[in-house]
Write a structure and sequence with these properties.
Layout (H helix, E strand, L loop, with lengths): L6 H17 L1 E2 L14 H16 L18 H11 L2 E2 L6 H14 L2 H13 L4 E4 L15 E5 L2 E12 L6 E7 L10 E7 L5 E5 L9 E12 L3 E2 L5 H17 L7 H10 L1 E2 L2 E2 L4 H29 L9 H21 L9 H4 L3 H13 L6 H12 L22
Helix pairs in contact: 1-3, 4-5, 4-6, 6-9, 7-8, 8-9, 9-11, 9-12
The site of flavin-adenine dinucleotide has 20 residues, from strand 3, strand 5 and helix 12.
């Protein structure tokens, strides 16, 4: 198999590099921080400015249609862009949810008016979007959600609570799944809406994380009015619409940072000392590095296999879960090892004290969440077991019951 660029791809890559060289600062390391930078308020403004520049000069949302603000390029061009952009020092990617998941959902299920209203602005990035799916009692079992929407004239009235909503505190719009009919089985009584995050009755409360930052929120909805014109898909079809979002989420996460950072780890091992010698000379360190390298390469080639299938026109199937099932624990193990290699300074979450190596401390604290977001380890293994290996499915007693009759434990 040949992984080199074709002449056309090489020419495109050169154009991408030339534009990025002109407009951004190259990183000291080739490997990006797969967990991104911190989202302080200055970073949001810088992210918006960067996205506007990309949009205005023809480098935003490359695969999207032109009338949606994209460039109608192929998937391969988008991959090349992503590979090259990751080598530059840039503001945090606050658009992963909007561009990776919600935009494609609008394209698949939105009306023409809805697409015209939102997609171009989403591509230019001056309006930020969040995903309002998970609830305190509905995460892996998303279809068990309890936030309600009740029709009232031309509006719907939403009441309930979401949680872990990334970026909700700085978002302008959200995509929300609600229960509109409790009298049918859980997957059938759901409806999907776009909600204005500045509406009366929406309250986002940031959750303080172990790293000291707050990237996600609890969001409360009290009698929030949403026009019926903001409904995406038919009443009761919310599960179908949500599945489009979730399929895109897994592809976005699976093809993201999995296994990233190996070269930075190698560099750290060269600079660190163990028993009076460079750590890289220690056989136990070399053994760990070799294990990480082999797994990273396995992930990279598994990713290429998925990419080849996509380029042939196939839809990514359940095997896409493998990237995250292996990549998320690998990221956590590499970060833990990097913190250990740093010795006492590994305990410092302070860029001024440890410089760029603080990336590992940040990754160490973020990585448990990555093993949960977008499908936990256990849920991914269930998917692989049932849908790739064909093992017997889980017992699902509530599947055909009207939702109102599903026991709640109270
Ligand atoms: C960093 C981060 C960002 C997130 N961003 C968003 C966001 O922007 N929008 C949003 O809507 N949500 C978001 N989430 C929420 C995320 O989707 C959920 O946390 C996830 O789906 C798991 O749901 P839960 O937390 O309710 O855990 P639960 O589903 O309650 O799971 C608890 C435990 O039980 C296990 N478990 C559950 N079901 C099974 C089963 N069938 N078989 C075996 N084990 C099982 C799980 O693996 C887990 O260990 C985010 C989460 C994180 C960590």
């Amino acid at each position: 198999m040949n992984f080199d660029d074709t002449p056309k791809e090489a020419e495109f890559r050169a154009r991408v590099r030339a534009w990025l060289d002109k407009n951004a600062q190259k990183r000291a390391h080739d490997d990006a921080n797969p967990y991104g930078e911190r989202e302080d308020s200055g970073a949001i403004a810088r992210a918006k400015a960067w996205q506007a520049k990309k949009f205005d000069e023809g480098w935003a949302c490359l695969t999207w249609p032109k009338d949606a603000g994209g460039q109608e390029m192929g998937r391969m061009e988008a991959v090349i862009w992503g590979q090259e952009e990751a080598k530059y020092s840039l503001p945090p990617n606050i658009y992963a949810i909007g561009h990776g998941m919600l935009g494609p959902t609008l394209m698949a299920h939105g009306t023409k008016e809805q697409k015209d209203r939102w997609l171009r602005d989403m591509a230019r990035g001056q309006e930020i979007w969040c995903q309002l799916f998970s609830e305190p009692a509905a995460g892996s079992d998303l279809a068990g959600l309890r936030t309600t929407a009740v029709r009232d004239g031309d509006d719907w009235v939403i009441n309930g609570q979401k949680i872990w909503s990334t970026g909700a505190h700085y978002s302008d719009w959200g995509m929300i799944v609600t229960r509109t009919d409790p009298n049918v089985p859980k997957h059938k009584g759901l409806t999907y809406f776009v909600i204005d995050m500045r509406s009366a009755g929406v309250e986002a409360r940031p959750i303080k994380q172990i790293s000291g930052t707050s990237s996600f929120n609890e969001v409360f909805f009290t009698d929030v009015r949403v026009p019926d014109a903001n409904r995406i898909g038919a009443v009761g079809d919310g599960w179908k619409v949500a599945l489009t979002t979730l399929m895109n989420e897994r592809v976005a996460i699976g093809s993201g940072g999995a296994g990233g950072g190996f070269r930075r780890l190698l560099d750290l091992a060269r600079r660190s000392r163990r028993n009076g010698r460079p750590a890289i000379e220690d056989s136990a360190v070399r053994q760990r590095l070799a294990d990480f390298y082999v797994t990273s390469k396995g992930l990279q080639y598994t990713g290429y296999r998925t990419l080849s299938a996509i380029l042939r026109g196939a839809t990514p199937g359940p095997e896409g879960s493998i990237g995250k099932a292996i990549g998320a624990p690998l990221g956590q193990q590499m970060a833990a090892f990097a913190v250990e290699l740093q010795g006492a300074s590994g305990g410092l979450l302070d860029r001024d004290a440890v410089g760029d190596d603080v990336m590992w401390q940040e990754m160490y604290l973020a990585s448990p969440g990555i093993r949960i977001a977008g499908g936990t380890d256990e849920v991914l293994r269930n998917i692989i077991a049932e849908r790739v290996l064909g093992l017997p499915p889980e017992i699902r007693l509530d599947k055909d019951k009207p939702f109102r009759d599903v026991p709640t434990g109270k």
